[in-house]
Amino acid sequence: MPELPEVEIARRTLAEGALHRTIVAVDDSDDWVCRPHEPGEIAGALTGRQFTEAHRCGKSMWVHSGGATLGLHLGMSGRIVIDAEPAPNSWDRFAVEFEGGGRMALFDKRRLGRAVLDPDHDDLGPDAAEVDRDTFRERVGRGETPIKARLLDQSTVAGIGNLLADEVLFRTSIDPRREAETLDTTELDALRRATRAAVRSALDEGGVHTLAFVIASRDGDGSCPRCEGELERAKVGGRTTWWCPHDQG
DNA sequence: ACACGTGTTATGCG
DNA sequence: TCGCATAACACGTG
Question: Which nucleotide lies nearest residue A239, CA to C1'?
Fold first, then answer.
């Protein structure tokens, strides 16, 4: 589920449902998801406090509590759930209970999500939906790595995942295997604009699953939405990649 | 049974 | 130290 748009939706869920409620209990017993702290350490830092603000950069979120900051990452399968019954099979990997009932949980079957105290975001690039034109040009348009791998590198620009990368490369007719430094400024500017537009659209429609090329490649019959030719599939930057060999030559 | 996956990070190599 | 590639991580799903 989670790429930048899903995480922004999760942040809004936190902002609307988890702020200004007194925390009376914390379940941080999953010592794989709750790291690197000892069980009870997050609980000790948050119990009795209220979350006051919910922030996001790329796919990382953090909430202020007046004292410690709680960092949340959804990993590949995580979701934020507010005021629901505890999930079966301990799929709630982290949870806080609020005074008077109700709770906030990180639901994550695969356990690749994270709940951390005072998260370190030093290795995170600027948010992919906010980065300015010149910064995008200089950070994305360098190196011999495939442009898709560059877009997926969270320290270059934060928030683009596997599906969004395919979508914006399709929208700009750029071959995902091109070396990043071979892109000219026109192509880089187009990539940035396509990213902003795709994020806006995904936010409006409910996630990256709703984007046309994502549907065509993952759920559809594998034909190009533009020329109807057959899409190609291969590993690029270690990830499954779809593109149109005709339009993205 | 077995490979795959919307993410991150540790490790290895030039 | 840097840039890049790959494996590993956990575990449900098809």
Answer: B5
Which long-range contacts link A38-45 to residues 24+ away (Cβ below 8 Å)?
Answer: A41/A117, A42/A68, A42/A70, A42/A94, A42/A115, A42/A117, A45/A117
Q: Are A21 and A52 in contact (CB under 8 A)?
A: no
Question: What is the average pLDDT across A16-36?
Answer: 95
Q: Tell me, in Å, how far CA of A201 is from C1' of C6?
A: 34
List protein-proximal bases of chain C (any atom < 7 A from a CB).
Answer: 3-7, 9-13
Å from the A33 CA to the B9 C1': 14
pTM of the model: 0.96
Residue range A191-203, pLDDT digits in tens = 999 999 999 999 9
